[in-house]
Amino acid sequence: xxxxxxLHVYYGEIHALKGISFRVAQGEVVTLLGNNGAGKTTTLRTxxxxxxxxxxxxxxxxxxxxxxxxxxxxxxxITHVPEGRRIFNRLTVLENLEMGAYTRSDRGIAEDMERAFxxxxxxxxxxSQVAGTLSGxxxxxxxxxxxxxxxxxLLLLDEPSMGLAPVLVEQIxxxxxxxxxxxxxxxxxxxxxxxALSIAGRGYVLExxxxxxxxxxxxxAGNPEVRRAYLGEA
Length: 234
Prior knowledge:
Low-confidence stretches: none
Distance between the termini: 37 Å
CATH architecture of the largest domain: 3-Layer(aba) Sandwich
Largest sheet: 6 strands, mixed
CATH class of the largest domain: Alpha Beta
Number of domains: 2
Helix content: 25-40%
Strand content: 25-35%
Number of strands: 10
Shape: globular
Mean pLDDT: 92
Structural class: alpha/beta
């Protein structure tokens, strides 16, 4: 499905991604792990067209995405839930969800709105509430629901558990699994390595813009380096 090859991305003269390559097969949950500054968010921003690589290739079903505008990438089936949620604070919950469908003109929007409310019943209760007044957990639900309104085939999730209470973290990850079971492929960036590895099939570990480790999630969870660096074990 998604094939990233020798990707190099710069911020000015800063070499942020140094030739990373990875793949995501249809139906998978794949996680990217790494410390702050490792290049995880840069990777997602490049995949969604917000950054342009200096070298390398991003292929979706064999077709290049490099140079495509962000809205064009959404039309191809990739949506991005950014770090920090980035909802429209002054719009209502319903208006935020409608914005998620801005690239669509089909007749299925209302049906998909109800599907988003089924995934996140709290949003249905808050549909007329101004989004900026929601709790952190509700805002994260809204950010994911907005992305689902574009009917993605591949969902890019950047730190969905950031700033949430443990009980809400579990709820968000259960929802991510449910979304995946509905046929949406997921590429997950997450600081909570234990939780990410518990739901992913495979993972990659980024260190200073390079892939240091890769493999099945169970193998990474048992790797002494990963356990020491990301799971808090001595």
